[in-house]
Amino acid sequence: MKVKVLSRNPDDYVRETKLDIQRVPRNYDPTLHPFEVNREYTRALNATKLERVFAKPFLASLDGHKDGVNCMAKHAKSLSKLLSGSCDGELKVWDLTKHECVRTLQAHEGFVRGIVVRFCGTSFFTAGDDKTIKQWKMESPGYGEEEEPLNTILGKTVFTGLDHHQKDGVFATCGQQVDIWDEQRSSPIRSFTWGVDSFSAVRFNPVEVRHHVSTTLRHTHTHTHTHTHTHTHTLYSFSMFTLAYKVFIVSLPDAFKMDCLIFLCLTSLYTYDMRFLDRPITVHMDHVSAVLDVDYSPTGKEFVSASFDKTIRIFPKDGGRSREVYHTKRMQHVICVKWSADNKFILSGSDEMNIRLWKANAAEKLGVLTPREKVAVNYSQKLKEKFQHHPQIRRIAHHRHLPKSIFHQTKELRVMKEARRRKERNVRKHSRPGAVPVVSEKEKHVVTVVK
Amino acid sequence: MASPGKASVSDSHVGKKKKPPARYWQEETDGEKKGAEDGGRAAEEEPRTQKPKQEEHQRDGKRFISGKSDPFPGPAPIPEDRLQKFKRKEKTKKHRRQHYKLRDIITRSEEASEMAQKQAARFDILLPEDAGFLEGDEEEDTYTISQEDIADAVDITSGAKYFNLKLSQFGPYRVDYSKTGRHLLLGGRRGHVACVDWQSKQLMCEINVMESINDVKWLHSETMYAVAQKKWLHIYDSNGIELHCIRKFNDVLRMQFLPYHFLLATASASSFLKYLDVSVGKEVTAICTKTGRLDVMCQNPHNAIIHLGHPNGTVTLWSPNQKEALVKMLCHQGGVRSVTVDKSGTYMVTSGMDKKLKVYDIRALKPLQSYFLPAGASCLSLSQRGLLSATTGDVVQVYKDVCNTPVTKPYMAHRVRGTAWGLSFCPFEDVLGVGHGDGFTSMLVPGAGEPNFDGLDANPYRSAKQRQEWEVKALLEKIQPELISLDPCELGQVDQATFQQRHQDRVQALGFDPLAKEKFVPKYKKKGRSSTGNVEKRKRQVAHEDQRDIIKQTVEDKMKMEKERKNREKKKAKLSGSRSALDRFKN
């Protein structure tokens, strides 16, 4: 007779001393783990619910401005520094870790229209309504020294936007015309105009700097007689100094942002491929009022938009709908927004003189995570992704509380859109086949492209 | 460098002649070889073309300083059967029209799951324990070996697992092992309840409920158990303190606990099947089965479906989501005496009054084997590794491989002191517990238990702290009773409901049909233009508008196809060329 009976040595399964961690032998045999899909689903559902429970994005409010915050700039080298300019010409430098203002200076008379930090981080430029561009030192003046700009350039017209080149000592302003300035000279090295339009924002292309074909982009509004608000954006080729494109878009004018793609907005935002400006790649819709500012995350996968409807929204780069909406009772029209360089925070400056600090990922835990926490977060993230299309999970994950007015406005807009669609459908039904073609949402907004 | 996975086994260096040690007169040739890319190759490979040489060089990229190459290049091969064990599903077919993004996602997730499968299969080789076995000598049948012999032959701790408890006063006994297999619950017909840590033989509590007991069951952990007493269902804790008396559950005869759903399913004498959610203490559903006294019950551990056996020979399958049975099977000529389902949910074994023991495939609902037992089996139990134990009177028999191959002899047999009433294999141990009229017998059945447990699921060696942590985790991932269905993987599949189905659901949920077309009511027009005739005319204009469109479209399509067909025929006729003489009479 040969016999063997299961006999385990408890020493192999129990920890030796109290200081050890517990032994957990594993066996991944599927028959020992029944209902794996159902259990994973339950875990995913719990993770989704917990995410909504922990979604507390608002971190701090930086107050101190005496008028609405009109523009902000991130420091090129330091994560904790933020510059903001208000409508009364005051400029403040903030320390974000301490949530306090470290320096205040009266930069301009009237609005501060644009701030940009030089790529080295030692100085910054401001442009204002008083037709001046000023360069300031980043360091605050020592005891007894007076707050004075390094340089002051007096322009001929009011400036509405400002941007600095990423590598060279060149910056650009816009207003009635787009000017390219050398830091060393007090007159623009180049000016561009197109028709009578004025420009509201200007950006250097961050990607194509090496080829010196940085492009600036312009935005104007032309009120034509037919009550159509045309919104154009123009692309200049910097090296060849020629005008490349001009796109007319039926919408209200506002801000735009340019990365490798171009971007501009009304209640919708449009992402363009810069090479093919006749048709946006994606139309991002969710805001119920004009979009005033936009900023990409440093990863380039998402962007944040600030709107006149008192909310900020986060959109995925290629998604038509926002994944997140932030609002508070006290936040008024949001004028400017910035995504911090560590991809973790969002800063919004609004009409009621406050700058607000938000988490980019609402449910994220701040601070250092232990390895086990990290593993748990990654696991639940993967689960949420896996089961995201299940109706119950989708409902919970997508639900956001909205202020009453925005909620009703959204509903109203939906009804209006549906009515328009229905009408178009009926018109198409009763006209000659092909007479009323189906125009996609992307194509609808572009009127013409002028080369 | 090529990935190590590309190395084929046939090309490995295993079995190749070892290079003889270098000698001084070979210096020249060695120098030549050094010039070549591959120093470790034998001379016979030199005439090869350049290309395969490069490949080989890439393959055994790992070189030791000594110049020798890895004799086992690439990852170790994994046995096919182990891979099969961890296979979840077949690869999805790629449709030509699939969107490229979707295709990418599917490919990537399949790669990940394949890797996981391989890793799990590799890990499986490293598991520490092996299953038990019992082999007789030549010409010796294993069922002739007595329990005493086995207990003598094995080590002391295992030998101590064979024991008898003489409890002749309150028997016969029902038996239940906790999920980890550490704790044993005994319930005597005449009211005696005892819970024991049976390995250390420590008595946790012993009470007499002063009522007749029909069944006992551990709940999710060893701190609580349910006792089906004469009238109500009671819940006690491990100290024997009565926690609840649940008056909603009366005349309970048999109970089953679904550990992942935290549901206690009870079958009563009044033919009610009721589910109690033990985590919140609420009755989930009560189903009137209308089949009389329910005293045969078991659960399918694979999909949490309850199987009930009835006096008319049928076995019915139940889920809490449906008031009717999911399946009704006629299994026996007489009444069903006992039912049991194996761990993987593939096989069901039933025994009936017709003295037969039958094996069914419950995925296909087909009979597989039928055995005749001279006295019939009163209790059945399947172990984790598929051993079947059956009791006839006071004899306990254990069979091996009943499901796949017809067996003639039992694997083991043992006679207990009284008629067996409760029977249960202990999880993760080679032990079979038998409750009978004279107490309880713990038998050794080598090869019954799963040798390697999973520490996060059911850990027999867990501490109190670990148990508490496990309890919290288990409660968090409690599966809702709505998810119980015949196929437990249903949730992971694509919901391919047709438009009609979804529309029907929507109508049912809303209470009205959102897509229903309003009936056309012509506008009232003045000056006599709304005469009945005119109204009818206008109605006729819009009547069946959508249908007309469809009809028009189909007619057009048909015409088009007909035309194309004719064209094709014409072309064919032209191509076939030679006109016969009779063609002139055509048309």
From TrEMBL, chain A:
It is found in: Nucleus, Nucleolus. WD repeats lie at residues 62-104, 105-140, 284-315, 327-368. GO terms for cellular component: small-subunit processome. The keyword Iron does not apply. Signal peptide: none annotated. Its main location: nucleus. GO terms for biological process: maturation of SSU-rRNA from tricistronic rRNA transcript (SSU-rRNA, 5.8S rRNA, LSU-rRNA); protein ubiquitination. InterPro entries: Sof1 (IPR007287), WD40/YVTN_repeat-like_dom_sf (IPR015943), WD40_PAC1 (IPR020472), WD40_repeat_CS (IPR019775), WD40_repeat_dom_sf (IPR036322), WD40_rpt (IPR001680), WD_repeat_DCAF13/WDSOF1 (IPR051733). PANTHER family: DDB1- AND CUL4-ASSOCIATED FACTOR 13, U3 SMALL NUCLEOLAR RNA U3 SNORNA ASSOCIATED PROTEIN. Belongs to the WD repeat DCAF13/WDSOF1 family. This is DDB1- and CUL4-associated factor 13. It comes from Scophthalmus maximus.
UniProtKB/TrEMBL annotation, chain B:
Residues 31-63, 542-567 have a biased composition (Basic and acidic residues). One of its GO terms (cellular component) is 90S preribosome. Keywords: Nucleus, Phosphoprotein, Repeat, WD repeat. The gene is wdr46. InterPro entries: BING4_C_dom, WD40/YVTN_repeat-like_dom_sf, WD40_repeat_dom_sf, WD40_rpt, WDR46/Utp7. Coiled coil: none annotated. It comes from the Eukaryota. This is WD repeat-containing protein 46. Residues 410-488 form the BING4 C-terminal domain. Scaffold component of the nucleolar structure. Required for localization of DDX21 and NCL to the granular compartment of the nucleolus. Part of the small subunit (SSU) processome, first precursor of the small eukaryotic ribosomal subunit. During the assembly of the SSU processome in the nucleolus, many ribosome biogenesis factors, an RNA chaperone and ribosomal proteins associate with the nascent pre-rRNA and work in concert to generate RNA folding, modifications, rearrangements and cleavage as well as targeted degradation of pre-ribosomal RNA by the RNA exosome. SUPFAM superfamilies: WD40 repeat-like. Pfam families: BING4CT (PF08149), WD40 (PF00400). GO terms for biological process: maturation of SSU-rRNA from tricistronic rRNA transcript (SSU-rRNA, 5.8S rRNA, LSU-rRNA). The lineage of its organism: Eukaryota, Metazoa, Chordata, Craniata, Vertebrata. Its main location: nucleus. It comes from Scophthalmus maximus (Turbot).
